[in-house]
Design goal:
Helix 3 links the parallel strand 5 and strand 6 (120-123). The strands form three sheets. The protein has a five-stranded parallel sheet with strand order 8-7-9-10-11. Helix 1 (21-36) crosses helix 2 (76-86) and helix 1 (21-36) crosses helix 4. The protein is built from eight helices and eleven strands. The chain is globular, with a radius of gyration of 20 Å. The chain has 285 residues and is of the alpha/beta class. The longest helix is centred in the middle third of the chain and has 18 residues, at 131-148.
């Protein structure tokens, strides 16, 4: 993970739409966090069934939700901030913040939901500062952590057709090069080639492919597979199994759905894929 920003990227985990003390406080803090932090991604942002107000406006959960409609008293401005956070993507290994009272500790649930997350930070809903004050506290904590301890890189094993002229290969090469240059990632590459035609990678790219292909993974790596949907298979010992894929049809073939559903995370390149995979009952990232 890059430390170029003095503020950390952040996952904000928990209800932002209901009327619990944590949900109302989260909505109040979110604009200030968005103003200061480089990335704020909302996860599990909907209330538990039955916890939302009965007289609130109905809101279909189309992005990252469990496929149901909730009711919320959030204002249009609050919903715009929530929507911005829902559409964001924080990097692997970044901190996760949750609002929880003294008798609550959702850390185990967070780590089950986000097995590749970094430090879990809990903030009491009675916190009296605004979002920018909280962002400053996070900045101080972030910089202290970076100064006091050398963070181990995220171990990633990437299986992908980085060689060859196909569209899959072009997408995989771009993702490979981005991860290879990311200081917070140690990448072990398992290169594939789709088709017999020779690719036209430059010598520098080929050298990076060869170097990454020689590496052995560390303990419990993330497995990132850039494959056709039906080629995906979960890996033993994975901290998380991630599938980066695409499909040009309007509907995902029924026989592929249980295969794709075996991925912990599903990465798709475009809106058309998001719509077709969600229509198949899958939750893409």
């Amino acid at each position: 993970m890059s430390a170029a920003s003095p503020y950390p990227p952040l996952v904000l985990w928990g209800d932002l739409l209901g009327e619990s003390a944590a949900a109302r406080r989260g909505r109040a803090l979110l604009p200030g966090l968005l103003a200061r932090l480089p990335v704020v991604e909302a996860r599990r942002f909907w209330p538990a069934p039955g916890a939302e107000p009965t007289d609130g406006r109905p809101l279909p959960l189309a992005d990252g939700g469990p496929g149901r409609t909730v009711r919320t008293l959030a204002s249009e401005g609050e919903l715009a901030a929530v929507r911005r956070a829902v559409e964001a993507t924080a990097p692997l290994g970044c901190p996760v913040l949750a609002l929880a009272g003294p008798a609550e500790d959702p850390s185990d649930a967070i780590r089950a939901d986000l097995p590749h997350c970094g430090e879990v930070l809990l903030v009491d809903p009675s916190f009296e500062g605004d979002g920018e004050t909280l962002a400053e506290s996070l900045r101080c904590h972030w910089q202290a952590c970076l100064a006091d301890e050398a963070r181990d890189p995220v171990e990633v094993v990437m299986t992908a057709p980085v060689l060859g002229p196909s569209g899959y290969a072009a997408d995989a090469r771009a993702l490979f090069l981005a991860l290879e240059d990311e200081p917070g990632v140690r990448l072990a590459l398992r290169p594939l080639r789709y088709g017999e035609a020779q690719s036209a990678e430059d010598p520098a790219t080929l050298a990076k492919v060869l170097e990454a292909a020689r590496r052995e993974p560390g303990e419990r790596p993330l497995y990132l597979q850039v494959l056709l949907p039906w080629q995906f298979a979960p890996q033993d010992g994975a901290a998380a199994d991630i599938l980066r894929t695409t499909y040009e049809g309007e509907g995902l073939p029924r026989q592929w759905r249980p295969i794709v559903a075996g991925a912990d995370e599903l990465w798709l390149p475009c809106g058309q894929n998001l719509r077709s995979f969600r229509a198949a009952g899958l939750r893409p990232e």
